[in-house]
Amino acid sequence: TITVSEADSLTRTITLKGMLNFILGIYKEKQLREDFEINTESDAVIFRTRNCIGDLANDICKAYGKTHPEPKKN
To answer: How big is the CA angle at 34 (ends 2 and 29), to the nearest 5 degrees?
Structure first.
């Protein structure tokens, strides 16, 4: 269960069912290493991951902005 607060005025509780099974399923489908090794490939992996997270955060912020427009100033 995750609790999310919107601007400290609205709090929502989200229950994610099956998340553990999803995470464990990734280990069956993807080739994952036991330890994180720092090498030339790790730089590319971190860069791609950071870009994906940034893109997703940007999309979420845009969607939030569309549903919560700023009040018009007089």
So the answer is: 70
- Pinpoint the alpha helices (H) of 1-74: 19-29, 40-67
In a domain, 73, yes or no: no
- Model pLDDT, residue 53: 84
Number of independent structural domains in the chain: 1
Report how far residue 35's alpha carbon sits from residue 43's, in angstroms, rounded to the nearest whole number. Answer: 15
Mean pLDDT of the residues in the chain: 81
Range of the domain at 43: 2-67
Asked whether residue 72 is domain-assigned, the answer is no
Predicted model pTM: 0.48
What is the rounded (10 degree) CA torsion for 25, 27, 31, 33?
170
